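Lab notebook, design round three. We kept the backbone fixed and only want residue identities now. Task for the bench partner: fill in a sequence for the structure below.
Input structure tokens:
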């Protein structure tokens, strides 16, 4: 058993794809036409870190309730965790790509960490070895 996908509500597909693939270095695994339960067009968009098993389904907000949740899916808490082998290289690459870091990198008992915001404003931890 494994977790295959986690949905992340985004405002629009293409800027979200660009953020995850260009700024974070994820792979675009799938971008296929689909339709909502009501027959409206949508896309099935999946990104994931290179070599990862679990992906993120980028789900365009549908309706006011979902638009309000984009960027606040975990009520302001860090809700997503991106672990890297080379923390300094990842931090520099992401900062150069325009990723907004919420505060300075710091050392914690579980490793190095820096909080960043995704394209919608959700908070993530960039995690690296101690």
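Proposed sequence:
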């Amino acid at each position: 058993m494994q977790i295959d996908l986690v949905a992340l509500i985004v405002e629009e597909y293409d800027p979200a794809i660009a953020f995850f693939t260009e700024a974070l270095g994820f792979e675009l695994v799938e971008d296929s036409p689909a339709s909502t339960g009501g027959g409206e067009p949508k896309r099935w968009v999946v990104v994931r870190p290179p070599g990862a098993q679990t992906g993120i389904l980028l789900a365009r907000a549908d309706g006011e309730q979902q638009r309000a949740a984009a960027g606040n899916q975990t009520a302001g808490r860090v809700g997503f965790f991106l672990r890297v082998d080379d923390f300094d290289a990842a931090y520099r690459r992401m900062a150069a790509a325009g990723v907004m870091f919420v505060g300075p990198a710091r050392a914690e008992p579980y490793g190095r960490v820096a909080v960043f915001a995704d394209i919608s404003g959700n908070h993530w931890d960039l995690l690296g070895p101690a």
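Keep this in mind before ordering anything: Strands lie at 5-10, 27-35, 41-48, 55-60, 78-83, 100-101, 106-108, 111-117, 123-128.
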